[in-house]
Amino acid sequence: MGAHSTLLLLADGRFPAGGHAHSGGLEAAVTAGRVRDLASLGAFLHGRLATAGLVTAAFAAAACAASRPPAEPRPATMLQPAVAVCVRHSVAELDAGLDARTPSPALRRASRAQGRALLRAGRALWTLSTVERELHQPVALGVVAAAAGLCPAEAALTAAYGTLTGPASAAVRLLGLDPYATHALVARLAEECDATATRAVAAALESTVDDLPACSAPLLDIGAEIHASWEVRLFAS
């Protein structure tokens, strides 16, 4: 399978990693009245991409770089620009670093649940470089991306894209929004998504774990804790 097809496979919401069961914090935001229509969904997605999206993309890119052979050659492309300095991290360091950036216990549980599912799917398709059975989802994504032959920039783009499409798909179910209008909204954020992935991969390849992005979104953390206490909910997180 070619690299472009593999990228599409990992970014596809139908990839069996359990992502469809999570709303990315949208269900809590809808219930709180912060997201109620297409305009407020756009604001939510913009904010999520700038915070959780950047962090997720940076850690996915760093984990991908950490899981690839050190001397593996690959020509520079539009998705993988030339980088003068490459800081290599261990997968364990990255997982601990992301754990420190996730203050909500509910979000940590959700991230690790998605990571387990992603690693299980990855092992069914490719040979992974790690024996860990539990990693945060962005770190697991980087490991699986490397096993699939993708570069750090492609892992970052997949991660950033997922922070948009998950909540957008959930919005159609939660709010009954027009799916065409919702996907048009995601399309308008494409350039911003690309820019986020570019920033993320630069940070991932040139920064230590402590210096990787640590953008916070307190309402997502608070909403996750409230959401986890509900007896009835449509999404796991």
Automatic annotation (TrEMBL):
Signal sequence extent: none
Subcellular location: Cytoplasm
Entry keyword set: Chaperone, Cytoplasm, Nickel insertion
Keyword flag Chaperone: yes
InterPro entries named in the record: UreF (IPR002639), UreF_sf (IPR038277)
Subunit description: UreD, UreF and UreG form a complex that acts as a GTP-hydrolysis-dependent molecular chaperone, activating the urease apoprotein by helping to assemble the nickel containing metallocenter of UreC. The UreE protein probably delivers the nickel.
HAMAP family in the cross-refs: UreF
Family: Belongs to the UreF family.
Known role: Required for maturation of urease via the functional incorporation of the urease nickel metallocenter.
Protein name: Urease accessory protein UreF
Origin species: Phytohabitans kaempferiae
Gene behind this protein: ureF
